[in-house]
Design brief:
- The chain contains 14 helices and 19 strands.
- With 411 residues, the protein is of the alpha+beta class.
- The protein has three domains: 94 residues, 3-Layer(aba) Sandwich (Rossmann fold); 68 residues, ATP-grasp fold, A domain (Dna Ligase, domain 1, 2-Layer Sandwich); 208 residues, ATP-grasp fold, B domain (D-amino Acid Aminotransferase, Chain A, domain 1), CATH 3.30.470.
- It has an eight-stranded antiparallel beta sheet with strand order 13-12-9-10-11-14-18-16, with helices on both faces.
- β10 and β11 form a beta hairpin.
Length: 411
């Protein structure tokens, strides 16, 4: 089994459980941009290549194919979806086509396909300039959402309530779009007013199973930074959103793999935000396994190798994650958790710090999830409500403090 993955401590913190789960079933060979460190105990072989370099990726894949009999290839890294599909085609391995992955990655293309197939979604217009954005906003009607056509992690996504806010918001969204691999265009979209959820789905040979619903908590407007998630095996919302999630996956042409389908409930009805054609981030796959027993990382590997995934529920509980952010941008002065409390609370599944004292953290609008987040904690319980309450209790035993930049403190 070939895995294409990002490298570094952030990959370990958020995707380490994926590699561990896949290695428990398959002999894993890895393509990664840097020399493996923590990955070594889970892999049989590796090649170093930048997945954004098509020739380097192809050469690395060919080298591994010559040394091993490959059954499939997968990635859980958003930025590598199209490249991995192209590699699969080159190596003759089963995969969704690169064209399907491009449609999933490009939000404008996806919106067109949703509309064509009758999937309830947001009104959307592609723009290239502030003038075009202003015209689109007047057509759609405020409030609107500005976002990149091909980014992820809520980077560069901002709500705009009035026309006078548009110039600043356009600059923020355009900056977020600069690193877009497939597209640097922007979208002006209808603001969907309602609770945000995602549906974690597994598709095998064209048949999709909705495994779980993830309920989300967002940070302060006008940004869309996600600060908490919870999964409950008994969530009644799953039956309400499954048809829209499966229709969206079908509209994109996805036939195999794990999908993270984001939507909002507007007046109680699901409306599509986007389909991420990979395992959800922020440890959501781990939450699903804690709550239901279904291993989404293993399911991703199975479908990539043409095998039917085991989606049998063996647990009936709940889990929650709280993503840790400081109250302001600055230099971390304290980053500590009460170890005694952790020892007394078996429902505290883990606490992970991504930063250490002395690191600089930068919140939006100047920063994003990669520059702002200090870590996360995960709790378990019989229901999502209890898991969320326990996460709040655990937070009271956590210290994340910063010293603001000198210019800001003296202003």
């Amino acid at each position: 089994m070939l895995v294409v993955s990002a490298a570094g401590p952030e990959a370990e913190a958020y995707r380490g459980y994926c590699l561990e789960a896949v290695a428990a079933r398959y002999d894993v060979v890895l393509i990664t941009p840097a020399v493996p460190t923590w990955e070594r105990e889970f892999i049989a072989d590796f090649e170093i290549a930048d997945p954004d370099d098509a020739q380097a990726l192809a050469a690395a894949g060919q080298a591994l194919a010559e040394r091993h009999e490959l059954a499939g290839v997968a990635t859980w890294t958003e930025w590598y979806l199209v490249q991995t599909a192209r590699l699969a085609r080159r190596l003759g391995l089963p995969s969704n086509s690169p064209e399907v992955m491009e449609a999933a990655r490009n939000k404008a293309t996806a919106r067109t396909l949703f509309a064509r197939h009758g999937v309830p979604s947001a009104a959307s217009m592609t723009v290239r300039s502030l003038l075009e954005a202003a015209l689109a906003a007047e057509t759609i009607g405020y409030p609107i959402v500005l976002k990149s056509a091909a980014r992820a992690g809520s980077i560069g996504v901002i709500r705009v309530d009035r026309a006078e806010e548009l110039p600043h918001a356009f600059e923020f969204a355009a900056t977020g779009a600069l690193d877009g691999i497939e597209s640097t265009k922007l979208l002006v979209e209808e603001y969907l007013d309602g609770p945000e959820v995602s549906v974690e789905c597994v598709t095998h040979r064209g048949y999709t199973t909705a495994v779980a619903v993830t309920r989300k908590t967002l940070g302060k407007a006008p940004f869309f930074e996600e600060v908490a998630h919870s999964v409950d095996a008994a969530d009644p919302l799953l039956d309400q959103v499954v048809s829209v999630a499966t229709a969206a996956i079908k509209a994109l042409g996805i036939t195999d793999g794990v999908s993270h389908v984001e939507m909002r409930l507007v007046d109680g009805r699901p409306r599509l935000i986007e389909v991420n054609a990979r395992l959800g981030g922020d440890m959501i796959g781990h939450l699903v396994q804690l709550a239901t027993g279904v291993d989404l990382a293993r399911a991703a590997a199975d479908t990539a190798c043409g095998q039917a995934p085991d989606l049998t529920r063996t647990r009936h509980g709940a889990a929650a994650i709280r993503l840790l952010y400081p109250s302001a941008s600055g230099t971390l002065t304290h980053c500590h958790f009460d170890d005694g409390f952790a020892a007394r609370t078996p429902w505290l599944e883990r606490v992970v710090f991504q930063r250490i004292v002395g690191d600089t953290v930068v919140l939006p609008p100047a920063g994003d999830m990669f520059s702002a987040r200090a870590g996360f904690l995960i709790t378990t319980a019989s229901t999502a409500e209890i898991a969320q309450a326990r996460a709040g209790e655990a937070l009271s035993h956590l210290t994340v403090a910063v010293e603001p930049p000198r210019s800001a403190s003296t202003a």
